[in-house]
Amino acid sequence: MSARAQKITSSAIREILKVTERPEVTSFAGGLPSPAAFPIERIRAASARILNDDPVAALQYGPTEGYGPLREWIAERCSRHGARVQPSQVLISSGSQQSLDLIAKVLIERDRNLLMESPTYLGALQAFALCEPRVVSIPCDESGPIPEALARAATFPASALYLLPNFQNPTGRRISEPRRREIIEVCRTRDIPIIEDDPYGELSYTGDALPSLLSMNQHGVVYAGSFSKVLAPGLRIGYVVAPEDVFRKLVHVKQASDLHTSSLTQRIVYEVVKDGFLDHHIPTIRELYAKRCNVMLDSLSESFPSGVRWNRPQGGMFIWVTLPRGMDSTVLLEQALADNIAFVPGAPFYPEAPESNTFRLSFVTVAEDQIRSGIARLGRLIAEGIRRL
């Protein structure tokens, strides 16, 4: 077995999800979109039309770059908020996790600094670890990475800065517009590429949108998007927008990975979205998620003891909880699972120096009455833990 393979570790979330398959478990663990938001009938109808009208092309090999009409649609949509994206810059991937894997192979170098928010997305930590970078954590506040800390870290050569600017997994934080401009300026002056991972950008509860990092510096940003959170994750369709030199290498590494993304599912996605469907569908997702988020926030206020802190997200799928110092969310999880409640401890999300008194809650797949009862039971367990401190 290679030394690289021996360094691969299992996802903490995936291990927890094995436990939460039991129907009696109230799970706040998975970062799964709500099945209630899947446009099943529209996807079924699109699939039937494709297999009736053009089955051979849908079932045949296709170009590595992706299905042309879908690439054109993505380029136009990404250009809505100030970026000028050409279809020739768009690569279709087999989900955003593959996007991260491909980007890592092109941008990230062994033993060279890789700058990351702290905490950050666990799947990115896994994808990037195979390239063996020297990870440097950038401390954050409620507005995002702290510019002074980023500037200090950026004095040393770095392969890239990885960011989830919108409703980040795990914290639910959105980087403010002034902070985005400061980050862009630091990276521009230090010639550090930015990896902008944006699976949640459409999920603002009010529908407002901040400028993408891509629109602020198109030549210095590699952008990763996905249809998993706005259509269905089982379709496994993501995409990367990149400058021409990076794009060419992304195509090469994708050829070596899987030749191309599924011809059938690319066509299904395009058939579903081509006539403006997302503009009507996404608001229904926002409404559903906002409602469940508010139920959880109200439940936290009612049931969690003093000394526990949490954010109030403006979009996305996650709430980040901080327990009093001295408490360990991994120990709390063991107690919660015994009471048929699940969440994700915070420690695995930290590139360095994990804070064990943190954890992530996801609310979008849980019914409102289950949110209330699950948070009430979890609050009692936390109160017991605080009394033992």
Written description of the protein model:
- The protein has 389 residues and is of the alpha/beta class.
- The chain folds into two domains: 147 residues, Aspartate Aminotransferase, domain 1 (Alpha-Beta Complex), CATH 3.90.1150.10; 234 residues, Aspartate Aminotransferase, domain 2, CATH 3.40.640.
- Strands 2-9-8-7-6-3-4-5 form an eight-stranded mixed β-sheet, sandwiched between helices. Strands 10-11-14-13 form a four-stranded antiparallel β-sheet.
- Helix 7 links the parallel strand 3 and strand 4.
- The longest helix has 27 residues.
- The protein is globular, with a radius of gyration of 21 Å.
Mean pLDDT reading:
95
Please identify the oligomeric state.
single chain
What structural category characterises the helix and strand content? Answer: alpha/beta
CATH topology of the largest domain: Aspartate Aminotransferase, domain 2
Number of domain units: 2
| Estimated helix fraction | 40-55%
Terminal CA distance reads 44 Å
What labels would you give this structure?
389 residues, alpha/beta, Aspartate Aminotransferase, domain 1, Aspartate Aminotransferase, domain 2, 2 domains, 15 helices, 14 strands, globular
